[in-house]
Design brief:
4 helices; 5-stranded mixed beta sheet; 4-stranded antiparallel beta sheet; alpha+beta; globular; 29 strands; single chain; 496 residues
């Protein structure tokens, strides 16, 4: 009786293993096919499902792709195992395998490459499927939560800033690159007054806390304080623009700007050309200005890397706030305390404390990697900063070493605003979007945008008006228009 050699025994064992693996493949394929058929029957049988038929079909196709990828990977791994076992058998028989280390390295590289390819495909498939599912649900809720109410059109160039007056009558103010600032009736969208006293772009507008006065900052290196007297027109019935607003993901595919023509401003809008007080001392563009609490002092921020504090009554310079390494981009004052925050292109923003007349302290916030476009106070002990690095950070004034929340976005963030009562952050972006977040960094909504509604170019600024019932959020952009939105706060928080 012949005796079986060691090499033939090893070959027979390897053959049996390959046979068992092939049977395993057939069993696996059969099981996966049965499960796929069961899933298809279950999904197709759910007639009362909330998912539309097209979405269910897409889900089935995606599941099929995932299962096929796993099946291909499994088969590929089996082939690799066979090659490794063959090499091991040859080594066990004492045969020299030339380039064995190289072969093992190639096998490992091949396995790693196939695994990374599968991982990338699964990530892409997952992102595509989840984005479709999320958009299908948000499309129905966005219109109910955020509705476009009115557009304010009349400027001949982009609008850099806007603000809502704090005294009666409540009006909307806009600052534009066309060298003018305009006051608007919120209810009717009619221009009430045009201020044309600046010789350069008007970069900022803020209303006095108790009187009918406005503070504007300009590229002509000055800031103007001017008084206004307006009479609100009779409100007209509001057209239901929300019925024409498509879902929020119906974004205009073209960059056509319908306002590119030289649109004429409102012909019946009265003009004002003389300022009550002119604040001078900067050697560069004045990019922003704001009133300190009480309205007796004002602060300005300039491209000359300094912020100046003025006495409003005498127009005298009280303090020059220096320390930033590059141009300033914004300044903001605390609503109830003598605190000022200035932001800069040097990737930092600074907190200036004037609560103690004998001590003027300053704190530097470092956390962004690009220009800090704005930093604003909330009611309490928080500061919210936005940057060109596509992040928004929430800071606690009691612990300034690191932010308590970070919001990451897909586009640079411009001048942000925070609602007083609900503490909702409105983020205007370079990519024409406006998103709403809470103070914990949770996304609440995105304002609807399509080829018929919303901004068509970069959104520069946002401002809340919670005392008004028809529009409580305003946005402006480089498309020469401001837009009033109605935000259903209860519905927004309920969705959260």
């Amino acid at each position: 009786m012949p005796v079986e050699s060691g090499s033939s025994a090893a070959a027979r064992q390897a053959k049996q293993k390959r046979k068992s693996h092939s049977l395993s493949i057939r069993r696996t394929n059969s099981t996966e096919q049965e499960r796929l058929g069961l899933q298809r029957d279950m999904l197709e049988g759910q007639q009362d499902s909330k998912l539309p038929l097209s979405l269910r079909t897409n889900l089935l196709d995606l599941f099929s792709q995932i299962e096929r990828e796993f099946e291909n990977l499994y088969i590929e791994n089996l082939e690799l195992r066979r090659e490794i076992e063959t090499l091991n058998d040859r080594l066990a028989d004492g045969q020299t395998v030339e380039g064995a280390d190289l072969a093992k390295g190639a096998l490992k590289t091949k396995a790693s490459h196939s695994t990374s390819q599968l991982s990338q495909k699964l990530k892409t498939t997952y992102k595509a499927s989840t984005s479709k599912i999320v958009s299908s649900f948000k499309a129905t809720t966005s219109r109910a939560v955020c509705q476009l109410v009115r557009e304010y059109v009349g400027h001949r160039d982009g609008i850099w800033d806007l603000s809502v007056s704090r005294t009666q009558p409540v009006v909307l103010g806009t600052a534009s690159a066309d060298h003018s600032a305009m006051l608007w009736s919120i209810e009717t969208g009619k221009c009430l007054l045009k201020y044309a006293g600046h010789q350069g772009s008007v970069n900022s507008i803020k209303f006095h806390p108790t009187e009918q006065m406005a503070l504007t900052a300009s590229g002509d290196q000055t800031a103007h304080i001017w008084r206004y007297m307006v009479q609100l027109p009779t409100p007209q019935p509001v057209a239901d623009i929300s019925q024409q607003t498509p879902c929020e993901d119906d974004v205009d595919s073209s960059d056509k700007d319908e306002a590119d023509g030289e649109a004429e401003g409102p012909s019946d809008c009265p003009s004002l050309r003389v300022a009550t007080t002119t604040l001078r001392s900067h050697q560069g563009v004045v990019i922003a200005a704001d009133w300190l609490v009480g309205g007796k002092q004002a602060v300005t921020a300039s491209w000359d890397r300094a912020a100046n504090l003025y006495d409003v009554e005498t127009a005298e310079l009280v303090h020059s706030l220096t320390g930033h390494d590059q141009e300033l981009t914004h300044c903001c004052t605390h609503p109830t305390q003598r605190l000022v925050v200035t932001s800069s292109r040097d990737t930092t923003f600074r907190l200036w404390d004037f609560r103690d007349p004998s001590i003027h302290s300053v704190n530097v916030f470092q956390g962004h990697t690009d220009t800090v476009t704005s930093a604003v106070f909330t009611v309490g002990d928080n500061v919210v900063s936005g940057s060109d690095d596509r992040t928004v950070k929430v800071w606690d004034l009691k612990n300034m070493r690191s932010p308590i929340a970070t919001i990451r976005t897909d586009s640079a963030v411009n001048r942000i605003s925070v609602s007083v009562t609900q503490k909702i952050i409105a983020l205007p972006h370079d990519n024409r979007q406006v998103r709403l977040f809470d103070m914990a960094g949770v996304r609440l909504a995105r304002l609807p945008q399509s080829n018929r509604t919303g901004h068509r170019r970069m959104v520069c600024c946002s401002a809340w008006c919670e005392d008004n019932t028809s529009c409580n959020l305003f946005t402006c952009g480089f498309d020469r228009q401001a837009i009033g939105w109605n935000i259903n706060i209860p519905a927004l928080l309920q969705e959260k």
